[in-house]
């Protein structure tokens, strides 16, 4: 943190200029008193962010993007993160060998385009390295000799280099590759300590199929954002636990292709082939109608499907405790087969028969209804503890059960929060409803967005 305070103003201004989120800009200046004095020079991405209308101010700040971080989270992370912008120093000279402090566990390199990361560029305590979107050259050969603590490396969009020339640390456990990566992964190239391998972008250009030995035996999590090649027996490591396929993967997964210890499997929209599920599977996600799987393992507990539930699944409903359904028409009468269901998530679901009440199974404790099921009579169970909705009509025919202690409302329509039972202790809602909330002593925790709103209002008052 002390080293961060010594950054020249030109570097500080460069950092602030490249931060896209308005809230993150404010969070950055909260990390040190010196930066707080520079707050008058902040340039926000929304022209109307400094309007006098307080409500419009809040609306503009918190709706630029949906993913916002809280001030408290940023202050906690500021002591262990360093964001370095490569480029020119105060004397307008190219600098590729920055000096970091000794207390940073996370290093994020922004705008690292042509500069090579040299062996003395990273602090010895660095554990997580993010080289940014533009970096596309190998590491210096000795960069990891002095640093054996690095466990995680994340490459950005444009990185496309053979992995065998990267000189990856021997104790690496996490590796993420971006959309432009399109290289053959030769056998025994990746470190034998690697546990997580992620091909992040769904527009990935990976055209090389995996070979036997391409994936280390230590791998437990594999996420393939874009992979369309067949998987042969022996390709996937024996100890793999979590496997996510891309939407364009459509090849059989029969026999012993899938590891016997696999616990999580996700198949994309294009998958229509036969699959033999291992008996260890506990979580299954299908982005298409259920129908190509002959047998459900008795260990399955979490199921996610797009479309209606196939009739053949009703024989296994007693196994499922968490069910997620996306889109298309859904026969809600089939929910009566789920005898141990405790969590139900519905996204953009349409009911096949609107004349029938939508009766939520009596065992459900967590219910989320986002889009769809508008205007239907919904019967909530007395066991309900957590409820998330974005349409007030969900509670048109029934009040909130007194057992609910966590309530989330992210809709645009006006919701009468005064009708919430006194048992509600955790409350979360979108920022446009904050002025309608009357906080009562029973509310123990509110959404972090409220803290953001209050902090931003205070920030604007001090600026004026």
Automatic annotation (TrEMBL):
Cross-referenced Pfam families: FNIP (PF05725)
Chain coiled-coil ranges: none
Protein name stated in the entry: FNIP repeat-containing protein
């Amino acid at each position: 943190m002390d080293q961060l305070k010594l950054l020249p103003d030109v570097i500080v201004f460069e950092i602030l200029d490249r931060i896209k989120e308005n809230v993150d800009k404010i969070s950055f200046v909260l990390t040190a008193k010196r930066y707080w004095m520079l707050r008058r020079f902040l340039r926000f991405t929304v022209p109307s962010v400094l309007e006098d209308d307080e409500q419009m101010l809040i609306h503009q700040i918190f709706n630029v993007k949906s993913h916002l971080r809280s001030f408290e989270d940023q202050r906690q992370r500021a002591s262990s993160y360093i964001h370095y912008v490569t480029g020119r120093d105060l004397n307008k000279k190219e600098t590729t060998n920055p000096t970091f402090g000794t207390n940073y566990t996370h290093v994020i390199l922004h705008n690292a385009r042509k500069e090579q990361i040299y062996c003395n560029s990273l602090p010895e305590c660095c554990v997580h390295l993010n080289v940014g979107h533009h970096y596309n050259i190998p590491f210096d050969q000795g960069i990891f000799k002095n640093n054996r603590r690095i466990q995680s490396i994340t490459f950005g969009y444009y990185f496309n280099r053979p992995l065998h020339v990267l000189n990856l640390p021997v104790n690496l456990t996490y590796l993420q590759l971006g959309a432009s990566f399109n290289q053959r992964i030769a056998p025994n190239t990746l470190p034998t300590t690697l546990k997580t391998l992620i091909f992040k972008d769904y527009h990935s250009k990976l055209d090389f199929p995996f070979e036997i030995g391409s994936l280390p035996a230590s791998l437990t999590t594999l996420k393939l954002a874009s992979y369309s090649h067949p998987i042969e027996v022996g390709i996937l490591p024996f100890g793999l636990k979590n496997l996510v396929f891309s939407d364009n993967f459509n090849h059989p997964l029969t026999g012993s292709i899938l590891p016997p210890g696999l616990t999580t499997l996700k198949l994309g929209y294009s998958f229509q082939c036969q699959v033999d599920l291992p008996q260890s599977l506990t979580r299954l996600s299908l982005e298409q109608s259920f129908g190509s799987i002959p047998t459900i393992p008795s260990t399955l507990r979490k199921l996610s499907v797009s479309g209606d539930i196939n009739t053949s699944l009703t024989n296994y409903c007693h196994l499922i405790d968490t069910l997620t359904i996306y889109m298309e028409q859904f026969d809600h009468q089939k929910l009566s087969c789920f005898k141990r269901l405790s969590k139900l998530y519905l996204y953009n679901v349409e009911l096949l028969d609107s004349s029938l009440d939508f009766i939520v199974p009596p065992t459900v404790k967590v219910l989320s209804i986002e889009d769809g099921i508008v205007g239907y009579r919904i019967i909530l169970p007395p066991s309900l503890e957590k409820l998330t909705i974005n349409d007030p009509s969900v509670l048109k025919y029934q009040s909130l059960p007194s057992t609910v202690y966590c309530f989330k409302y992210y809709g645009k329509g006006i919701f009468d929060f005064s009708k919430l039972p006194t048992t509600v202790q955790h409350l979360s809602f979108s920022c446009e409803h904050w002025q309608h909330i009357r906080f009562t002593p029973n509310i123990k925790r509110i959404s972090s967005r409220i803290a953001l709103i209050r902090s931003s209002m205070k920030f604007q008052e001090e600026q004026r």
